[in-house]
Specification:
NTP_transferase_dom; alpha/beta; Mannose-1P_guanyltransferase; about 25% strand; single chain; about 270 residues; globular; disordered C terminus; 9-stranded mixed β-sheet
Length: about 270
């Protein structure tokens, strides 16, 4: 039976899975979401509903994780934690969910480590996702990519579209074309991860792992980047405009090639 568990519940005995594909995940859901006000005045950012769905962002995330084979999730709460916990307790969830609440801010790396301590199988790999990401792609493929490269950590990579129109010129300064919302020339961290069991011990107790742990792993060639596959959907919900755009994309159905919220052109692997 799937049920919600608070951090006060006894730890559930784990069943060891001899597979590279994780069945457990951490969702970082403690942000204040100040740029989403007034939506976040009375609820944490992951509890903001995508217009037209009747479901908060966290609901979409948990459904996606469950569909990708995750059976246990730890949700790290902070801002207005009780609102999120109440929703989780009342919802019909497709997987087991436990919440943890930071007594004081630990930073993103410290928050990950704090939440990972409550995973049911500490000696097995795990997924992690930021609580404001709405996406759909194969986590199983990402886990296989991670395993094939022998990585300690793998992050999903997106190529977002620039919100402004671009102007193309030639070497003489003549304007050749206007391009509406072109894809960025840079890849970004998409906020979804696969971590090996050993990664947890490398996280700082406090601070940001992207300034400490990730650079160290990159120097040691133990950090991999998984380009989101062509046709995958990805959007970070940061502002009210993002909510509006997400609702439009939902109403329009799956975006045609090249017209989604980010470019999905495959990136050659090193």
């Amino acid at each position: 039976m799937v049920r919600f568990m608070s951090d006060d519940d006894e730890r559930r005995p784990g069943h060891h899975h001899q597979t590279a594909r994780p069945t457990q995940a951490v969702v970082l859901a403690g942000g204040q979401g100040s740029r989403l006000r007034p939506y976040t005045d009375d609820r944490p950012k992951p509890m903001v509903e995508i217009p037209g769905t009747g479901t908060p962002i966290i609901g979409h995330q948990l459904a996606w994780l469950a569909a990708e084979g995750v059976t246990d999730a730890v949700v790290s709460c902070g801002h207005l934690a009780a609102v999120l916990q109440d929703w989780l307790e009342a919802a019909e969830l497709p997987l087991r969910v436990r919440t943890v609440v930071e007594k004081e801010p630990l930073g993103r790396g410290g928050g990950l480590k704090f939440a990972a301590a409550r995973l049911p199988e500490p000696d097995q790999p795990w997924y992690a996702t930021n609580g404001d990401i709405w996406t759909r792609f194969s986590l199983r493929d990402m886990a296989d990519f991670h395993d094939e490269r022998g990585a300690t950590a793998t992050l999903a990579l997106a190529r977002p579209r620039i919100p402004w129109g671009a102007v193309e010129t030639n070497e003489f300064g003549h304007v050749l074309d206007f391009i509406e919302s072109p894809p960025s020339p840079y890849l970004i961290n998409a906020g979804v991860y696969v971590f090996s069991a050993a990664f947890t011990a490398l996280l700082p107790d406090r601070g940001d792992h992207e300034r400490t742990t990730f650079p160290r792993l990159a120097r040691e060639r133990r950090l991999a980047g998984f380009p989101l596959p062509q046709g995958a959907y990805w959007r970070a919900i940061d502002t009210a405009k993002d909510l509006t755009e997400a609702a439009k994309e939902l109403a329009a159905g799956p975006p045609p090639h090249g017209h989604g919220p980010f470019d999905t052109t495959p990136v050659p692997h090193a």
